[in-house]
Amino acid sequence: MRLVMEKRSETPLWLMVVSPLIAVGLPVLAAIIMFTLLGKDPARALYVYFIDPISDSWGLQEVAVKATPLVLIALGLAVCYRANVWNIGAEGQFLLGAMAGGWLAVITHGSTQGPWLLPAMMMLGALAGACWALIPGVLRTRFGANEILTSLMLVYVAEYLLDYLVRGPWRDPGGFNMPQTVIFEPEAVLPLLMEGGRLNIGTPIMLVMVVAFAILMGRTLKGFEIRLVGEAPRAARFAGFSEKGLVLTVFAISGALAGLAGMLEAAGTVKQLQPGISPGYGFTAIIVAFLGRLNPVGCLVAGIFIAITFIGGENAQIMLRLPLDATRVLQGLLLFFVLACDSLLLYRFRFVREARA
Amino acid sequence: MDATQPLLLAEGITKRFGALAANDHVDLRVMPGEIHALLGENGAGKSTLVKIIYGLLRADAGRLLWQGRAFAAESPRAARRAGIGMVFQHFSLFDALTVAENVALSLDDAGTAKDVAGRLGDVSRAYGLPLEPAREVWRLSVGERQRVEIVRCLMQDPRLLILDEPTSVLTPQECEGLFETLARIRAEGRAVLYISHKLEEVRRICEAATILRGGRVVERCDPRQETAGSLARMMVGGDVPALRHDHMLAETPVRLAVSALSLPASDAHGIALRDVSLAVRQGEILGIAGVAGNGQDELFAAISGEVLSPSVAVAIDGVAMGQADINERRRKGAAFVPEERLGHAAAPRLRLTENALLSGHATNGFVAQGMVDRGRLRSFVDGVVRAFDVRKGPADPEARALSGGNLQKFVVGREIARKPGLLVVAQPTWGVDAGAAAIIRQALADLAEQGSAVLVISQDLDELLEIADRIAVMFVGRLSPAVPVTEASRESLGLLMGGAES
Fold first, then answer.
1. B231 and B354 share a domain?
2. Would you say B375 and B382 are in contact if contact means Cβ atoms under 8 Å apart?
3. CA-to-CA separations, B291 to B172, B303, B473, in angstroms, rounded
4. What string of H, E and C letters represents the secondary structure of B177-218?
5. Which of B326, B350, B397 sits opposite A228 (nearest CB)?
6. Would you say B261 and B309 are in contact if contact means Cβ atoms under 8 Å apart?
7. What is the DSSP string of A257-272?
8. Is B66 left (phi over 0), alpha (psi -120 to 50) or beta?
């Protein structure tokens, strides 16, 4: 007996549906094994991870708050990856967006501004993210530099830039020397959706973006161009599309979304700038994009799911005394199984008996 | 060795790929000292069978007897050790290495390149296959590369040599050289398993033939006793419609003019175009013949606009378009069908409707305000599918799910459906079965009859002699003057393909 991998000519619909379910089911199985080895009751651990966060209004709001930046970033990354452009520096673009939006909030601090302030902060955040993302874009199209390396390295530049700003020029004078800016004025903070809750207008903005991107990728010529360049570059040239132009476009789109997410996070949840403004949203969003099959609606579902594991992970630290690393392992397993299921979609696995000699 | 014992005997070979039986109880008997033709249309199962013999695939059922003993090659290496050599249609040579280095790399009992060079010289002289061991492969013509492959096989002293479509890349004169080599190989008692779809040459050089259709052996015959027509009927299982086309030689307006086009090679292994001029008139089919790799790809790219050229070098309907991109040329009425179906003409993992959008988004009204009109795309694809008899299974399958012939009918049909004023098509029937090829050639002839100009770039001289009104030949980036097909002979064209001055 021998195992052979054969390329499928057509992927059946049922597999497209079942494959992500397997991608979720297998890591849960792995999680059960892991929890057991750690000496925890797997049933209770799974409950704390996956059910507890969505069992009350507080949990649900937390999930939405976490999912918002993840989904926003993942939407842009999915566009990049569809075009075979490997932007993995969304974390840096997120921070630049937070800094650019936060800058406006910091310099207008203490004065009264009009309702133009928040839209301006959003525009600035998106613009800054896009510009930051265009650096690896230009390096690739002009000099052939590998965007995986350049975009990743710019994350560290962005982190230190933020670190410098909140310890230096933008430090809150009344902040006991803590590395953080002033708390933003109410005008520069995203309005809440309901009194006393945590949900702000970032979440509806994210939902609008999901719809917009679903239309962009599914119904427009631009979306077709993005998919074609990624799928068959030579055919894209035959269609008359410019690969260089497209590389820059998708970098700008994903940078703008990551920047917007960063600004929304700074002005919504954190309400100031500080070094720990992102718990790695830009990297986790890579998992979200792939788990969502690089599809906008898929990204929404995957973002919510990953957000649940985030909240569940925090719960588990408190209630089960599980380390944060356990959550990271769980998220890593998820990505691993998603990629494995991808092979399942593209290939057919068969056992064949040896031919009689 | 006993001359009455088959060298290779295959019995009941069966190989399935999913639901498809590529080989269904195939029997094959090759005698020593025999040139045995394996005939069949694309997808008939020829490649699968030889891959099983050569150890690249394993049969699901059936058995092989090699010199009377049970045999199943675990790998090509094992097959070579047993005495089976194979030359593939697509060569596996390293461009940057010399002939001797390439041969040394592939020999299982490898010596250094220097040791090999001596033996290589002996073998190449003995079989009339002249080669320079120290030359780098990228400098060689396609015919010379094939010689390297054949010599490499012969150096391992095989009893059976498998050749897959060996003459499809050769000029008529090079073919003659190959046939002489095969005669020497046969005279030594070695056998050749010869895959080809050129029936005239099979009739000339083969003394036995096994004909496959749909994975089954449908006929065994002595091709010398058959006609090309009777062999074709056995392969296809019916008659192939003859082409209806009246040659046109009128002084109609020129629709495509290429004038003194010179372009440097895009990379070290590319071909530079040198002073290429041609004119295609309304209502005519101009054929460009030539061995692959003599600048045809570069010429296609320059005419299509995938590579830009000086503005006046390419003119469509009298308008200089050398600097216009491919979509501007399409809007001017031009349509293009590149050689490579998957990856160039079509994106393998996109659906047929999306592949219709690929070449038609600028001209066919599929897009309004940036939004794709999916209804219009679907009805367009339905029209193409009906007009060209594209067999596609599900409603809107991915391009890679179609067989080569059906995809080719689709990519040709998608352009012709637009009624282009100018159609440029490379290898219109490459690797396509006889039925599909007949449909495509007829469509090209009909398009010309309706007043379009058609430029056909093809390596298949027989095809060009059938459909073209005038023929020009490409050789290392130069194009010979076009001659009316009525005045062209295979010999004169063959000399031009080999580089003789006209």
1. no
2. no
3. 10, 19, 9
4. HHHHHHHHHHHCCCEEEEECCCHHHHHHHCCEEEEEECCEEE
5. B350
6. yes
7. HHHHHHHHHIIIII-S
8. beta
Q: Read off the CATH number of the domain in which B183 is found.
A: 3.40.50.300
Contact partners, residue B255, CB within 8 Å, separation at least 6: B280, B281, B282, B316, B317, B421, B422, B452, B453
CA distances from A328 to A290, B212, B464 (A): 16, 57, 64
Looking at the structure, do residues B209 and B300 belong to the same domain, yes or no?
Answer: no
- The DSSP secondary-structure symbol of A185 reads P
* CB spacing of A234 vs B71 below 8 angstroms: no
Do B264 and B221 share a structural domain?
A: no
Residues A19 and A73 grouped into a single domain: no
* Same domain, yes or no: B262 and B228: no
Contacts of A232 in chain B (CB under 8 A): 343-344, 346-350
Same-domain status, B155 and B285: no
Task: Decide which of B185 and B114 is more confident.
Answer: B185
Closest residue in chain A to residue B69, using alpha carbons only: A357
Residue A289, domain member (yes or no): yes
DSSP B304-359: HTSS---GGGEEETTEE-TTS-HHHHHHTTEEEE-S-TBTTTB-TTSBHHHHHHHH
Contacts of B230 (CB under 8 A, 6+ apart): none
- Give the whole-angstrom CA distance, residue B469 versus residue B488: 10
Q: Do residues A208 and A194 share a domain?
A: yes
Range of the domain at B398: 254-497
Contact criterion met (CB below 8 Å) for B288 and B455 = yes
- Phi, psi (deg, nearest 5) at residue A183: -70, 135
CB atoms within 10 A of CB A276: 9
Q: State the first-to-last Cα distance of chain A, in angstroms, to the nearest integer.
A: 14
Asked whether residue B232 falls in the same domain as residue B258, the answer is no
Split into its structural domains, chain B has a count of 2
Q: What span, in angstroms and rounded, lies between the C-alpha atoms of A200 and A61?
A: 10
Residue with tokens 């799911």, as numbered in its chain: A305
Residues from chain A that touch B63, judged by Cβ atoms under 8 A, are: 355-357
Instruction: Count how many residues are written for chain B.
Output: 502
Regarding whether A276 and A143 lie in a shared domain, the answer is yes
Q: How far is B364 from chain A (nearest CA, A)?
A: 13
Contact criterion met (CB below 8 Å) for B52 and B23? yes
Alpha carbon distance B446, B455 (integer Å) = 14
Indicate whether A35 and A132 sit together in one domain: no
Asked whether B33 and B189 are in contact (CB, 8 A), the reply is yes
Report the alpha-carbon distance of residue B344 to residue B326 in Å, rounded: 14
Last residue of a domain, which of B236, B262, B278? B236
The total number of structural domains in chain A stands at: 2
On whether both B329 and B465 belong to a single domain, the answer is yes
Tell me: do B223 and B81 sit in the same domain: yes
Maximum pairwise Cα distance, chain B: 77
CA nearest A352 in B: which residue? B60
Q: Which residue range(s) make up the domain with A105?
A: 67-316
One domain, residues A132 and A30: no
Residue B406 has a CB neighbour count (10 Å cut-off) of 21
Tens-of-pLDDT digits for all 357 residues of chain A? 567 666 665 667 777 777 777 877 888 888 889 889 988 888 988 888 888 888 888 889 999 999 999 999 999 999 999 999 999 999 999 999 999 999 999 999 888 888 899 999 999 999 999 999 999 999 999 999 999 999 999 999 999 999 999 999 999 888 888 899 999 999 999 999 988 788 999 999 999 999 999 999 999 999 999 999 999 999 999 999 999 999 999 999 999 999 999 999 999 999 999 998 998 999 999 989 988 889 999 999 999 988 988 888 888 888 888 888 888 888 788 778 877 877 777 777 766 554 443
Per CB-CB distance under 8 Å, the chain B contacts of A227 are 350, 354
Of A231, A236, A355, the CB nearest to B59: A355
A332, two tokens:
């890593």
